[in-house]
Amino acid sequence: DAGVIQSPRHEVTEMGQEVTLRCKPISGHDYLFWYRQTMMRGLELLIYFNNNVPIDDSGMPEDRFSAKMPNASFSTLKIQPSEPRDSAVYFCASTDDRGRYNEQFFGPGTRLTVL
Amino acid sequence: AQKITQTQPGMFVQEKEAVTLDCTYDTSDPSYGLFWYKQPSSGEMIFLIYQGSYDQQNATEGRYSLNFQKARKSANLVISASQLGDSAMYFCAMIKAAGNKLTFGGGTRVLVKP
What we know:
heterodimer, A: mainly beta, seven-stranded mixed sheet, four-stranded antiparallel sheet, 11 strands, about 55% strand, globular, B: mainly beta, six-stranded mixed sheet
């Protein structure tokens, strides 16, 4: 079974541009999470969905960030306009509540650089 | 609010020796779960081991074991017989049983020396 898929793997953009990160969770998983990893702040949750519905978006830094999950197999995280401080690795993870440990399975991440 | 503290930013360990990575947590919830993840230089996050707050025994998964001391709110990871491939960042994380939000510690970088 394929793991969590993220695209692109690397993104370099200029300040002010719109950036869209994409995620395909593991089939059958009904929870999807977006995390951001930076040297300064470590790993932090941005938002998570359950059955395509946003449950907790308290980690979304500001209105420039938005996330959607139009169906069970696809989610996007959009930054508009992007700023240099948004440079980070963005991880998508998925899980269900039927597993032995309910561990979250992480995608490979998208490394975003905003110039 | 939940908080995870990893006090060791980095450490060296000799190949084939055991290493203990410290993790303390703070929560007022009676039910919670504790995870350890490994992040090699390639960047992916790899699940290693899980401990539930009500589990009576310490968790073990192969060369990984978790020294769970509930009263002290600590969940240290022990890696036995270290291998060169164990060189990575290691993150301790906590989850509320009722929700699925992971709170991560700052991580510990381990370098295994041959």
